[in-house]
User: Fold Tryptophan 2-monooxygenase from Polaribacter marinaquae.
Amino acid sequence: MSYLPFRPNAKSIDIDNKRENSVRNAFSEFLIENYGKDYQSTVEEHRSRPKANHFNEHINSEKADKPIVGIIGGGFAGLYSGLILQSLNIEFEIFESSERVGGRIDTWYSTKYDAKDTNKAGLYGEVGGMRIPQFSNDMLPVQQLALSVNAVLKRNDLEDTMLIWRKFYYNSPVQRLRYNNMKNPILAEDSNLNALNFGVDKGGDIPMVWVTKTTLGSESFLPINKILNKVNEPFITAINHSFSKGFKKLMKFDNFSMWAYLTNVFTLGDLGEYYNPAMGEKTAHLPYNIASYLETLNVGTGMYSVSFVEIILASYDWDGSKNSYDATDQNIYMITMDKGMQHFPDACKTVLNLEKGILPEDGQRAQELIGMKPGLNGKVGYSPDNLTIAAEPPKTVPAADASAPVQGSKSKKKERVHLEHRVTHINYDEHLYEGHGGVKMTIRNHGETKEKQYPYVITTLPNGAYLNGDLKENFFDNLSFSKARAIRECNYMPSFKAFITFKKQFWATLGERQGKGLGVAVSDKSNRQIVYPSYGYDAEGGVLQIYCWAQDAERIGALSDEERVNECLKGIQYLYPEVDIYEHFAGYKPEETTKTWFWDNHANGGAFALFKPGQFKSLYPTLLTPEFNGSLHFAGECCSVHHGWIVGALDSAYNAVLSILKQAGAHDKIKQMETTWATLSSPDVALTKMSKQLV
Assistant:
């Protein structure tokens, strides 16, 4: 599942053909090793102070029942933190301000939705993240989590809440594209040699040399469509050869936005065999109009203002959407949660509110089922038991030889997740817990205010949510300068989504892939994308989803709710000129037929983190650094290198828990954590490697 809009436009990445390698994980470690001096010195100071191990005995006790960790936020970072702690028999409490868990994983269900009625079962859409790459080594922990949760649900006779993945049809050869008042839309399969009216002979602003069919050997192409491959190629090659040297090469341009790199660094000569003297001198950079074309077709208006490094790494994420077992398979493989992504956090909450949660054997078996670790035959494979038929892997993917599931026993209920409990203020007191120090939290629930205190707190809110809006009292007091600056400056990307119900699925009757998904239709209108449903094609009606980001989202988001729907309808009509789409529109009835979402009142100013130039090396280590002698830890997808993906929240939560365990000197618990949950991307993993190298 991804919040990110990037479309694959890079060469396939080999990474030495080693599945155990992970570009994002290696990048996280590289950043800490090369730019994390303050992070390293701070955590070492926290862990070496006299009272650092004060809670060692409590954490290692198998009878501990008093919560020692308070978790702020019930999104995936908060839920995963809790699930890890629960599996280690360390007590905690989660406080979520809204009436549900999931954070930016949020499914909209029409008031007419009925999972048991064929004609109503498809009346929903994903307000938040909606898909994950199926075979990406970086993203596998998300599937491991779902399988581990299922193991607990099954032994507690909760099979009806188990998590099932279905296929998400990201693209198709018959998805529609229309730009620049083209007379008619075209299909994706016919787009490679189509200039989409961007050429000057069609009223556009691109010189024809860029958008004229060219032949090189047996290959026919438009030169303009070769630019991004050439932009990515040097960095892909360098990283494939050496992670460390490759990232060092990439980070030379961390202070550039994607737009700045295209127009101030990349030269026409860098096009190599695709260069044509008619384009200009080899030393010249790409003109504004070319950069605009690339931004328009590949992301959204204004998105090339983000870090060049961020854009390059997004190409790796999309490459991870391919079959990692077969380099010749260039298809995109994505999955989504059957009947809505909201079921995922809901299932996590169900497990968290049981006395006993995920066992080490559950976690290990899940890792074997999806290829995070070798199975009984010593080889990795992929055959999770929670896929619908359409989501089954291709035949080139080997089956996993996994351990048998453990029987386990049913568990009593134990409430740890508290909904509609809004944390409004936290305050560190160094005298708490016999000088170890701790955090006092002010919590508001239905007008009543209460206080709690814990030796450790993990806060997982999006950075904008730390503006609590209260009279006089701040959310934080006395944060370090670097942390306060990082929270203030960390860039979030605005996003807009709309869900519009139609009485008839005209897109299916006009398409050629009924029941197989149509992918995503794209235009240059402000609504940008139509995300077709990957389900419900056996119904009469259905829901189309509109999705856009950055400036496009800001402008459409500034309208009233009904005006937003009107703009979306015009955008849909633009892509379907042969149909009167208004005839099939089910009408403007908020929550029944329509839903629009712009940012979110719980995200407070952005849908997902997307760093600006310089923020990877300047802000990333700071966002991860604990505060208040290690009593306060930060998590969430902004505290990872996986921006906009569920796994970013998981990685950050893993690191926060690991940091607490290391400070307490709980080495046995760390081993148990690694057995159950594997070793995810973590700055502390990088520190461990560094310390071993120094010995």
In short: Confidence is low (pLDDT under 50) at residues 1-20. The chain has 22 helices and 24 strands. The domain at 36-99+419-489+612-694 is CATH 3.50.50.60 (FAD/NAD(P)-binding domain). The longest strand covers residues 422-429.
